Request: fold
Amino acid sequence: MSVRYPAAVASDPSQGDDLGRTATAPISSTGRPEPAEALGASLGRYRLERELGSGGMGVVHAAFDPDLERRIALKVLRVAAPGLEAKDRLLREARAMARLAHPNVVTVHEVGTANGRDYVAMELIQGETLADWLRAETRRPVEIVAAFVAAGRGLAAAHADGIVHRDFKPHNVLRSRDGRIVVTDFGLAREAQAALPALRDLGELASSRAQAAMTLPVGTPSSLTGITATGSLLGTPAYMAPEQWDHGAVTPATDQYAFCVALWEALAGERPYRGPTLDELRSQAALGPAALDDSRIPRRLRAILRRGLDPDPAQRWPNMDALLARIVRVERRPGVALAIAGGALVGAVVLVVAMRAGDELVGPRCEPPVLDAAQVWPPGHADAGQTVAARQLDTEIAAWRTARAVACQVAPVVRAPQLVCLDGVLARIDAVARAVRVNRGTQVDAGALLIDPRVCELPRAPRLMMNTSPELREVMAAWLARTAAPAPVLPAAADALVARAEPDPCASSLAHLLAADTEKTLAERSRHLDEAQQEAERCGDDRVLAETAISTAQHMMGNEWLSAAVTAKLRLADAAARRVAQRDLIAQVDLMRVEVARRVDNLEEAIARGGAAIDGFAARGRLRPELTAGLAVLALRQIRANRDDLAAIPGQLAAWRTRAVRELGASDEIVRAIDARAAEWAFAQGDVAAARATLDRLARALPNTPPQRVSGVVVDRRGNPVAGATVTAGRSLRGDSVGAAGGFTDRDTIRSATTGADGRFEIPDAIEDAIVIAELADRRSPPVAAGEDLRLALAPTSRLEGRVDLAGRPAANVAIMVKDLAWPARSRYALLAPVAADGSFAVDGVPRGELRVLAAIDGVGDMVTGGATARVRGPVVRGVALSLVKPTRVVHVLVRNTVNTRLANVEVVILPGRVASSNALEMTRRFRSGSIRLARQLDGEHAPKDIVAAAKPGDLFATMTGVPDDASACALGLPEFSDAQLERRFYAHLDRIQVICAALPDGVNLITIEVPPIPRLD
Reply:
């Protein structure tokens, strides 16, 4: 039996969905709007080569990416795309697809904006849509089933990631020239858990007199056959499940229904339900498949498809995997299974092969693997304290066995490269298993080094190392130890590891990455990363190359803010992660993109990227990075400050902690991180005592390298020694109503001592360049720089009360900060207090004298502050008034060097009034209120057009919001603070650092400031 796809349906112009044009299929000769850009032009870094197609939302071009030297499909949103949700749909589509690293889902490389146009860059498929392939010639049922099973695997992958397509049809499936099947056009995709109705106003639409009366000749292309409408009608009516018509919940069962409609249509030559009007089509679908004529459907598939077409979602197959398993099982006749496996996608038969009893890893078609899987990781071999790694290795071995069994069944041309790839996967599993055993008793994260065996099903499988050396196994053991350790490898140990790893380029690359994390200087880190890159290229393993690219991008982001070079490195990291198709590596890139989005004030994009990172880590069973990403997203949601976001924080933290303790133990690092975040939340809610108690419990003494000895005496106001006083030393300290010194950050490097009867104290291992403070009851000493023979004088403290006008901001995102103007500018010490819901605050333990009081906002962009000066003489001072009312004026500040050299970093400050240029020390003393932001390097994707037009090479810029009418912009050059010694010298010589200020005239929204180079600070 052969099937001819119905031409009347297949040629429907409305079926040509935008993402379907990622295939290089011929375009029908229908009228279409003008392309988004002229051919040969550039959009961002992409060079447009030819138009592939167009639709109501946008135009799709074949384009060239010069950075990664590859051709891609570039979907560009029309300026006048219909509907208010066009851009949201484009972004939703890109994000949904980017989350899926699966051979049967088209790969999304990037979503961005250039020249005022939004675009999505994705994989270019050389081929055609499944509808075009079906129409081109008569196809055998086995070929059709093979193609649809492959497409079903893509849908199943989406469902496993919590995504429902909502618009599955043959025109949204692509077939490459080599037979690869990919699902595309996720423009209507939604989270499966959201259970959102697909049709908002379809009831009104269908019941309207005009629509109900509409009739069309049979065979006429219409909205009934293919349109994906905008506005109230979302989806393609001919493939829509009854629950979509009835405003019901959209679930994976909805996609299953559309899949069965499409497969029925492909096999029978017509759809199971047909009607000339929306009402009739809806009525037929609601009746169910009982009365359908299935004579043209192969007998073995009839009951399977009928169940998938049941109007009740609960009566359909439990999931897509179950449906596909049933289809493949009935197709396992002589010659049929091989056609399914070799003709479309090997993964189409995974479930059936895995379920067959007695499947072997060798046979007439397969040589034995290079290693014996039973010896690599025997069942029950794990140490009792390594439950996480054991679960990860068990899962990986099981997946490898399934993939190997499948590969042994397919045609030789497909089988050979897959077996080579699977040998590489098993070799890595073996090396990781050995590294896990070295770390016996430790809850290491084996997933940090494993490879998902399913990558071997890709048309172009990644390159993997075939052999593992003793050097590689030693480095892997150190790598895994780092996943559970509270501190990085010590520099001396890292250098020794690098030396021992030198004979093996794969081991050497990973060792250099470990060493880069231990170095304090920028030059040393850069050297190790360069060495890692060279060794990774010699190694040739795509996962090692991806780890190197990701580490390099992370390093650059930490030192260059946001520049074109950083963006390019980020793209390379993303491409490397996708080349090896590992969800956790892609998630690492997503986390970096969270930071990029924060830096350009795109909070929603940051949250979305963070969510994708969480999903990616979860998909690979990597709990620690999953929860780390979760904490980052939780902080962003607190900044966004939706009521639901804030209300969910305590419960989310509690749930994460319970899960982490259950799986990793109460002493694990991620449990400590969750507790620290809970302490921050308690502080923001006004429970300072609970916050301090948690932080004190979490504090521990990690090695300070190199240590600094601190000693001296604590005295009272009369100069008498004080016994029993607490002395604390740390690089960054903060006081509150409970104590003089503590910290949310660097708490593990803080050291304390108690004075003896003679008032003397000694701290032998304080962190280098610390500040020191003493306290006893309500008396505290001013902070001083660490040293020996210090004299710390205790003095009475006071209470400061006041109110801040929150200007609609949640109190949880605002804190009060107090500093004594007499303290050294480099003291890095402040008193902090939370703000109540009504804006009131009280700060205990403040010194007496002239104080600077600031209200600071935890936000994405600039730190907006309202400030005041308070003179404290007695025990209580009341009536301090602050305001966070923010003007709407926006000013772009362009900063360049006076000697035409590169600026490392620049801090831009907006101050009220006319402010004269001065040195940094004087400016620090003068600062009362304003907004502060680090300038960033120009990047055409993020910089405003007027900035780009006025800029010169090497310039930095900052966009300042909330600028008052009478204000000045000031710029301060900063060094690379990755060098700790340079940082210390910088703060010791603030009086030599120039701050250049310029008044902002009314109506001016762009100003250029020239700053001198930073002087030598020897």
Summary: The chain has 31 helices and 37 strands. The longest strand covers residues 863-872.
